[in-house]
């Protein structure tokens, strides 16, 4: 399996997009840290930008990469290699190179300008989000053979998790404002990895004091080490469910 | 060596293979013929595990190959249209496959030499002509001394000299006791290399006989006429 991952890496490195992505993140983080204010403020702005761009770039890049690797996979399928191994190598190759770009682009500036526990959580969240959205991209790619349709599904998923979902939550909160919704919001948060990531980082910044009752509840549940563990556990489920189901679809279909 | 039992395969509503049962023995060159879309490629893809059958079984040396992968080290496959990662060079593709198949001990580089692929090693796969891609496919299929060779329209797109090289290679491997399955439309070529002919029509086996027998039954000296006679005779 490591041999195949090596060739996937090789292919991605030759493709300059990952390099451009690293530079983009590097410039973004250095710029935000130098804009003045405390490192905490910079991390907060960085968080909002990261939660918007990282899912988008991960999902679009992974989907196009999957379709472009069709020939490569077809070549390997006729060899004595398990199909599941081919699929997982593709996944790990893409997810690890994008995560590497993220760690370089965001991790190095954090280390230089404001190393803190919050910074570490931001980094971990970014890596998890990358793995989750690459998994979702692969799910979109195995559902349909048509490249345009696959990218369409991937973009819809991004829209849903990054924008529409928050709108739905706000609508529910507004419509049922008379009821106690703290627990319900907590559950709804768990159903969106982007929100989950946002809350993990926010709770470690002092701004959580501004989030009212729900914020207090979050702080009491997710503020502890146990809660952080739970949140990352949920993110892990967000990786495993899409990638295992797409692996299953991939190993049972015709090439 | 290969036994196919009651194989069914459909793509959506299209029923491509309908109850195909057939056996192939080692040391033979079997030519699979049939009109376009009769299921020839699908059958080879089923043997390779690239297409998954709906019903039925495929056995190699008595063992079912469905949902397995190790058996593919015994098969060399040359696809009809070779698809390769466009930005890899010929050398990289060959090195990669060798790297993946490291356990194979005796590597057969004869075709790489005969086709002069070494002189083109630094060319990108995307820039190659269809014929050159075919040469790479052929070299890869024969490289690991497989016991079974599945060649899907191997000479389509090859120039006459290269086709001749391939044909003599096929006969050479046959003498080593290998089973070689060839799908082809060129009757003269089949007559040259094949021992048996299997004909698929609409996903069903129409006949599977040795060439000598076909000629005897139809009283024809040439295979193309003999086969035309069988096909027309039943319509």
Automatic annotation (TrEMBL), chain A:
Protein's UniProt name: ABC transporter permease subunit
Lineage, highest ranks first: Bacteria, Pseudomonadati, Bacteroidota, Cytophagia, Cytophagales
Protein species of origin: Pontibacter burrus
UniProt entry tagged with the keyword Chaperone: no
Cellular component terms per the entry's GO annotation: plasma membrane
Molecular functions (GO terms): ABC-type transporter activity
Transmembrane segments: 18-36, 42-70, 91-114, 120-143, 155-176, 225-245
Domain of life according to the entry: Bacteria
Keyword annotations from UniProtKB, A to Z: Membrane, Transmembrane, Transmembrane helix
TrEMBL record, chain B:
Superkingdom classification of source: Bacteria
Classification via SMART domains: AAA (SM00382)
One MF annotation (Gene Ontology) recorded for this entry: ATP binding
Pfam family, one: ABC_tran
Matches recorded under CDD domains: ABC_DR_subfamily_A
Keywords, in A-Z order: ATP-binding, Nodulation, Nucleotide-binding, Transport
Residue span(s) of domain ABC transporter: 2-227
Family, per entry: Belongs to the ABC transporter superfamily.
Protein name: ABC transporter ATP-binding protein
Species name: Pontibacter burrus
Lineage, opening ranks: Bacteria, Pseudomonadati, Bacteroidota, Cytophagia, Cytophagales
């Amino acid at each position: 399996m490591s041999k195949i991952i090596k060739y996937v890496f090789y292919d991605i490195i030759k493709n300059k997009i990952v390099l451009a992505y690293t530079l983009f993140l590097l410039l973004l983080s250095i710029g935000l840290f130098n804009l003045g204010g405390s490192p905490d403020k910079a991390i907060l702005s960085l968080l909002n930008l990261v939660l918007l761009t990282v899912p988008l770039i991960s999902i679009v890049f992974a989907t196009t990469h999957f379709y472009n690797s069709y020939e490569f996979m077809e070549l390997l399928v006729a060899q004595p290699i398990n199909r599941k191994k081919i699929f997982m190598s593709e996944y790990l190759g893409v997810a690890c190179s994008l995560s590497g770009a993220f760690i370089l682009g965001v991790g190095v500036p954090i280390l230089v300008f404001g190393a803190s526990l919050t910074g570490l959580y931001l980094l971990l969240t970014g890596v998890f989000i990358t793995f989750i959205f690459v998994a979702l991209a692969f799910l979109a790619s195995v559902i349909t053979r048509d490249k345009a349709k696959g990218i369409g599904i991937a973009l819809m998923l991004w829209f849903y998790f990054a924008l529409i979902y928050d709108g739905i939550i706000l609508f529910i909160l507004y419509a049922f404002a008379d009821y106690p919704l703290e627990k319900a919001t907590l559950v709804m948060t768990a159903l969106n990895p982007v929100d989950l990531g946002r809350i993990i980082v926010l709770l470690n910044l002092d701004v959580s004091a501004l989030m009212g009752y729900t914020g207090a509840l979050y702080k009491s549940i997710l503020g502890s080490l146990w809660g952080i563990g739970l949140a990352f556990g949920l993110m892990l489920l967000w990786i495993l469910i899409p990638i295992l189901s797409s692996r299953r679809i991939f190993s049972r279909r015709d090439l | 060596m290969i036994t196919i039992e009651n194989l069914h395969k459909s793509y959506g509503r299209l029923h491509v293979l309908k109850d195909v049962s057939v056996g192939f023995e080692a040391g033979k060159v079997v030519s699979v013929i049939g009109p376009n879309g009769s299921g020839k490629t699908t059958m080879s893809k089923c043997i390779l595990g690239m297409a998954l059958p709906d019903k039925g079984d495929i056995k190699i040396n008595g063992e079912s190959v469905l949902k397995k992968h190790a058996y593919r080290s015994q098969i060399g496959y040359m696809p009809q249209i070779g698809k390769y990662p466009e930005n890899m060079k010929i050398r990289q593709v060959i090195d990669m496959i060798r790297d993946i198949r490291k356990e194979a001990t005796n590597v057969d580089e004869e075709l790489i030499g005969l086709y002069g692929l070494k002189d083109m090693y630094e060319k990108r796969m995307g820039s190659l002509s269809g014929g050159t891609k075919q040469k790479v496919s052929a070299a890869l299929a024969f490289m690991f001394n497989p016991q079974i060779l599945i060649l899907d329209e191997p000479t389509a797109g090859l120039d006459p000299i290269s086709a001749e090289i391939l044909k003599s290679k096929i006969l050479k491997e046959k003498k080593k006791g290998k089973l070689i399955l060839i799908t082809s439309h060129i009757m003269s070529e089949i007559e040259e290399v094949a021992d048996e002919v299997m004909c698929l029509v609409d996903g069903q086996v129409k006949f599977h006989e040795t060439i000598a027998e076909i000629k005897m039954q139809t009283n024809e000296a040439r295979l193309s006429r003999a086969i035309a006679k069988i096909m027309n005779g039943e319509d």
